[in-house]
Amino acid sequence: MPGKRSLVRSGTTVDQMVRAIADRIVTGYLRPGERLDEVSLAARFEVSRTPVREALGHLSAMGLVERRPNRGAIVAVVTQEHLASMFESMAELEAICARFSAERMTGGERRALEMEHQASARLVQLGAEEDYEYFNTEFHSRLYRGAHNAHIQDLTVTTRSRLAPFRRAQFMLPGRLAKSWQEHDLIVTAIMRGDGAAAGKAARDHVSIVSEASAVFAAVEPVTSVLSRSARQ
Q1: Tens-digit pLDDT profile for the chain (233 aa)?
Q2: What angle do CA 45, 130, 56 make, to 5 degrees?
Q3: Structural domains in the chain (count)
């Protein structure tokens, strides 16, 4: 129809909406129990309600939004216990991927991993949080692919997607980029040596540290556990 606003404006995608809303939930700008109105979100992102519904569906699958029949969507309660259980699972899955990568990666895959890792040191020096975050996602994806096990890769990617907003939040903490790079370095060194046990341990330790760093965004209140607002302070 002439003059009708397109479903998604230039530069705005469902994935970008998911990311923006998820980040506001994780950092406490949107509180547990707060209603997520489709009309208001559509106006804010300048899209129709169709992509908004799709974004809310993704957020529901991630456990950040609760969709209630005939009552709309609200911000879900994320308890520390649930978050810890997801990170514990993530640590074990990444350990398997790193161990298999050390044992199964081709020479070309190993060289690409090392080259990209070394290049990322520049991002740390520049304090380029957003660029490093994209690198971080690709770094871990290389480990999943390098395991050469499609089923484990699928499980790991699915688990990671549910933790993505919390894993992004860690980079808001002072000095986290440099520490992340050093943790990656232990993983890469072990993989280049073909040391599966060391690679697995380094990956497990890395995710455990990420879990601790992300825990700053969760807090327990008297009745229930909710996402902290500490990142706003």
Answers
A1: 333 333 344 446 888 898 889 888 887 788 888 999 989 998 888 888 888 999 999 888 888 899 887 778 998 887 788 888 989 999 999 999 999 999 999 999 999 999 999 999 999 999 998 899 899 999 999 999 999 999 999 999 989 888 888 888 777 778 889 999 999 999 999 999 999 999 999 999 999 988 887 666 554 332 233 333 333 33
A2: 35
A3: 2
- Identify whether 46 is part of a domain: yes
In a domain, 224, yes or no: no
Distance CA 116, CA 141 (A): 12
Tokens standing for residue 159: 């688990």
Q: Domain range holding 122?
A: 80-218
Q: Could you count the other beta carbons within 10 Å of the beta carbon of residue 196?
A: 19
- Residues 215, 80 contacting (CB under 8 angstroms): yes
218: β partners: 227
Q: What is the rounded distance in angstroms from the CA atom of residue 122 to the CA atom of residue 36?
A: 39
> What gap in Å lies between CA 78 and CA 95, rounded to an integer?
25
The answer, as to whether pTM is greater than 0.70, is yes
Domain boundary among 46, 76, 106: 76
3-state secondary structure of 18: helix
